[in-house]
TrEMBL record:
Organism the protein comes from: Mycobacterium asiaticum
Domain of life according to the entry: Bacteria
The name this protein goes by in its record: inositol-phosphate phosphatase
Cofactor(s) of this protein: Mg(2+)
Keyword Magnesium annotated: yes
GO molecular function: inositol monophosphate 1-phosphatase activity; metal ion binding
Chain positions recorded as Mg(2+) binding sites: 65, 81, 84, 212
Length: 266
């Protein structure tokens, strides 16, 4: 497969999705999902549009957030999140985007992150470099946690589940002793793209959805960053969390995570 050609085809497909994405801002909930999550009509319409166009243009099947599709362990599969940051999108925040990753046997080999309200498009293929609005970006340099902005997902302190709220509070409390520069953007895809771009030094995701991570993992790795789960194992589609960071910052955050203890202790 010619990855550059596939990314070019996929870029054109996402460009056609920008207009409905922009025009649907503040769309109301159309489909209730687990917990208090939901999907808007825009999520559903963009997924249908992008899936149809991608299959026709590239011949590769798609796994989407809203309708599922091909197995993410397929030899080749696109992984799509039509509206990442749905709460932001519905509320009128510009911090939302379209995420598209390409997996080969479960390995992210290309990523596209479109941030239409900000007017920024990120792409990358395995081996790099990160491309921002068509221009190659410098590789990430080793950095220090004390000097870095860190992205983290929002949560309730009283939530349970795989990573209880009290555990998340403890992680952020311990991180704050070295860096008080936390940012909660409400969009995992944006956080990962910003790590790749060097805007954030690192980002922690307590989520497990492959469509939130596939595109960004490809971007960060292409930029020279490191992506694992919170236990330090390399990120794979079945991972239940993600830690993406520049060299140096990743090691410091991982050490803090390990010193915080196990989530089940909370």
């Amino acid at each position: 497969m010619d990855l550059e050609a596939l990314v070019a085809e996929a870029s054109a497909v996402l460009d056609y999705a920008v207009e409905p994405f922009l025009s649907g801002h503040r769309a109301e909930s159309a489909v209730s999902k687990k917990g208090n999550d939901f999907a808007t009509e825009v999520d559903l319409a963009i997924e249908r549009q992008v899936v149809d166009a991608l299959v026709k243009a590239t011949g590769i099947e798609v796994h989407g957030e809203e309708f599922g599709g091909a197995d993410v362990e397929s030899p080749w599969v696109w992984v799509l999140d039509p509206v990442d940051g749905t709460f932001n999108y519905a509320a009128g925040s510009p911090l939302a985007g379209i995420l598209l990753g390409l997996l080969r046997d479960g390995e992210p080999v290309a990523g596209l992150t479109w941030l239409p309200f900000i007017g920024t498009r990120y792409t990358a293929v395995v081996g790099g470099p990160l491309m921002k609005d068509g221009e190659p970006q410098p590789a990430l340099e080793p950095a220090s946690l004390a000097d870095a902005l860190i992205g983290a997902g929002s949560f309730s302190a009283d939530s349970r589940g795989r990573f209880p709220g009290r555990y998340r509070v403890a992680v952020l409390e311990n991180l704050s002793r070295l860096s008080s520069r936390f940012r909660m953007h409400g969009s995992t895809g944006l956080d990962l793209a910003y790590v790749a771009d060097g805007i954030l030094g690192g980002a922690i995701s307590f989520g497990s959805h492959v469509w939130d991570h596939a595109a960004g993992v490809a971007l960060v790795r292409a930029a020279g960053g490191i992506v694992t789960d919170l236990a330090g194992e390399p990120w794979v589609p079945a991972s239940k969390s993600a830690l993406a960071a520049a060299p140096g910052v990743h090691a410091e955050i991982l050490e803090i995570l390990r010193s915080t203890g196990q989530p089940e202790d909370y």
